[in-house]
Amino acid sequence: HFMPRMFILILFPLFRVKSLPCHSSEPLPVPNEWYQQGDLILGGMVSMANYQFNEVSFKHHPSQEYFEHPDVLTKFYQHVLSLVFAVKEINENTEILSNVTLGFYIHDSYYNAIMTYRTTMDLLFRSVRFVPNYKCDTRRNLISIIGGFSFGTSSYITDLVKFYKIPQSSQYIGIIRMLQHFGWRWVGLFAIDNTEGEHFLETMESFFSQHGVCSACTQRIPYLTYWDKLIEMIKRSENIFKHIIDEKIKTFIIYGESLTIAWFTNIIFYLDPGQEQSSLGKVWIMTAQMDYLLTGMNKKWDRQFFDGSICFRIHSKEIPGFKEFLKFIKPPWIQEDRFFPLFWEQRIQDIPGVLFEMKLSGHSYSIYNAVYVLAQALQALFLLRSKHRHLLRHKSSDYEESQPWEIWKARIHIIFHLTNVQIEISELVLPIRKTQETGSQAGEMNFACLQFLPQKHSTTMIKLLINFNCFIFLFYYSLLYRKKFCCYDCIPCPEGEISKQMDTVTCLQCPDDQYANHKKDGCIMKTISFLSYEEPLGLILTTVATLFFLTTTWVLGIFIKHKDSPIVKANNRDLTYTLLISLLLCFFCSLLFIGQPGRVTCLLRQSAFGLTFSLCISCVLAKTILVSLAFKATKPGSRMRTWVGKRLAVSIVLICSLFQASICIVWLSTSPPFPELDMHSAIEEMILQCNEGSAVMFYCVLSYMALLSFASFIVAFQARKLPDTFNEAKFITFSMLAFCSVWVSFVPTYLSTRGKAMVAVEIFSILCSSAVLLGCIFVPKCYIIVFRPGLNNREQLIRRFI
Asked: Which one of the record's GO molecular function terms can you name (predicted)?
């Protein structure tokens, strides 16, 4: 039953419980703290004293254990005073949080995990006695915690406060954003070999996996070096140096302390004294606490190797009144301050600058700003509540209703001016520091500026920015055996898709009316395509159709001029005229397929094509049937004589043509053709074409034409041996054979093409088949009429027949 009870304990109400007397002996005592009462309490966590805590012996109560004299970082006392000064200014300012008094409760982490957990629980629960997870009175309303100088300290605090929805943030997401901004995806990690370093590596690896950054190598830097392990240390150094000189790794993140930089410097000087291999233009990114401790390093160290390194240095600015505030701090004046005895009894301004600076440091300024951020967030929250006060059932004070998680939501939207510096919380703008040999004051610049890099490394940096990036490609993870998630290949986006971002995991589909450009980073509008009269192919087909049309007109004129000649009479003059007129229409209807398709042209062109060709083939079929019947009718006693005449020819032409006309009428009434844009057949074009409406009806028209052609071919083939003078069967047989060959090859070619080519194939088939009929049937007759008129007489025809 342990787990259910533990769960109930965690969920027990933390805030606004009734005051109860708490009886409990004190656990491990807290040497350093500073409490000031207020309506709302700001928690503070600093790292100032380092006590050598003894292990619990279980022989004495922990509160009775002896503490050795601490090692004190006196300069960090400024962190405490900056928080106190900010609270003092806000309480004295009537424009911020009027009628509300801010208090504070400041603790020391003691650079110890156990004590950090202990003091954090003090901030959450302690009033008179310490009872974990329970508040003994409601007078202390903790609204937020500011602090966590190192990664370890902040992570220990987070382990506790996250259960109670007290907001926190860290600088490490800033590192990720900087890596993403510059496109640094292949990054080496170096961390001090202790618990904090391990925690840092775990956190960064988690951030890397979430934001697509790869750890090229992960190395742990020794915390301390002993002479008896020198050989082991040399081997370890060589392994680390191997990654430092790796040309593929251009960016490194270092987490540690001042000794970490010293250790790195010693490695370089030992393994590469002339810096011939290590001077490769690397980018070194350091965390904020390293930047702070770096200022206390020995100036004689040669830091040329780290020239151009980037540190997360927090902006600092002089605050009016802060130095005066420090001068008036004396032991009697701050009775509740249990940090001050660490400075003995001397005045702050008399302490050497190396131990305590009168000028506000970057971290102190950050703490000062953090207090103002929280104050402005509370102010915004109270103003919002005051507008809706009439909706509340009870009229308690605004600050009594305040919860830590509400402050976080209000803080995100705040933009305020503080000491003439605009601070926007919703965006992360990081100042960049250039480490210089002279130790001069660091410069600050925006993310988008690369001037912080030394001149000698600028070329290397340009290469680095384009390394391991898939800009116009798909971010494809190669799921190879024992490969990290970030080991991927860049492959092109599929046709019609683009990528507008670097290292994207998916490609974007262009709209239907657009296509991807050559680089595949943008879409271009497709052009509308159709077979026009202006382009070469359309112009050639138009010219050919016109020439054939004029040729057919000339042939028709010749036949009309010589209508009484024997050769014209012998070949059924009326059918000849009808056939020539139908051929004229065939050549003319091919022009309906050229030009921009419209509603009228789409309705007419296939129907006109089907009707004119059916009329043409019907005439050929009628001529062939009449020739066959004419020779059979000459036999004595034959009844075929009554069938030979104009009525039979007219009947054949009308019946065959009307049947095709009925198919076209059904087609146009049920599924008429219409113009459409085909956006998918071509990549860079939208094809403006005629949709046939019903493919079945279109192929019915073609099938009926094929049936008439086949029938004409069979009849002509059977009549091919009749006497030459009156017989056209041989020419008709050859013309029908060529005609059928054209349209049989048309079907697969038509189905395998799209756009202009499809239209051109049909026009070519129309012109070719019509020209075959014109040439095979009428060229021999025109030759006799024009060039051999002597053969065009009755006597010659009778003589040849005999």
From this structure: G protein-coupled receptor activity
Q: What's the pLDDT at 546?
A: 95
Q: What is the DSSP letter of 339?
A: S
> Nearest 5°: CA angle at 704, between 700 and 710?
140
Task: Going from the first residue of the chain to its last (802 residues), give the mean pLDDT of each consecutive group of 10, the final group possibly shorter.
Answer: 33 37 53 81 80 66 59 76 90 86 84 72 64 56 74 67 59 78 85 81 85 84 65 77 81 76 68 59 70 40 52 69 76 58 52 64 82 83 66 50 53 39 33 32 32 35 35 36 52 81 77 88 91 93 95 92 80 86 93 92 92 92 80 61 71 92 94 91 90 92 92 84 63 88 91 90 94 89 82 59 42
Question: Diameter of the chain by CA atoms?
Answer: 154
Instruction: Give me 595's structure tokens.
Output: 């030009």
Site of tokens 């073609």: 702
Q: CB neighbours of 546 closer than 8 A, spacing ≥ 6?
A: none
CB 179 within 8 A of CB 251: yes
Q: Which two tokens stand for residue 732?
A: 């008709």
Q: Which residues pair with 492 in a beta bridge?
A: 473
Q: What angle do CA 496, 594, 772 make, to 5 degrees?
A: 120
Give phi and psi for 361, each to the nearest 5.
-80, 170
**599-633 helix and 573-589 helix, angle to the nearest 10 degrees:** 160
Tokens of 175: 């590192």
Q: Which residues of 655-686 are buried (b: 16+ CB within 10 A; e: fewer)?
A: ebbeebbebbeebbeebbbebebeeeebeebb
DSSP 707-726: HHHHHHHHHHHHTTTS-TTT
Interior/surface letters 547-563, b for 16+ CB within 10 angstroms, e for the rest: ebbebbeebbebbeebe
Amino acid identity of residue 519, one-letter, is K
Burial class (CB in 10 A: 0-12, 13-18, 19+), 78: buried
- For the chain, what's the residue count? 802
Residues 6+ apart with CB under 8 A from 416: 372, 373, 376, 422, 423
β-sheet bridge partners, residue 252: 188, 284
Beta strands 415-418; 251-255: pairing state? unpaired
Residue 675 near residue 592, CB atoms below 8 Å: no
Q: Give CA–CA dist 100/105, Å, rounded.
A: 17
Distance CA 165, CA 167 (A): 6
The residue type found at 419 is T
Sorted by sequence, the CB contacts under 8 Å of residue 735 that are 6+ apart come out as 620, 772, 773, 775, 776, 777
How far apart are the C-alpha atoms of 126 and 133, rounded to whole Å?
A: 9
The answer to whether the beta carbons of residues 159 and 44 sit under 8 Å apart is: no
Question: Please, how many CA atoms are within 13 Å of residue 76, restricted to the half-sphere of its CB?
Answer: 25
Domains present along the chain, CATH in parentheses: 33-165+334-387 (3.40.50.2300), 169-313 (3.40.50.2300), 475-525 (no CATH), 536-632+641-799 (1.20.1070.10)
Location of structure tokens 């533990």:
6
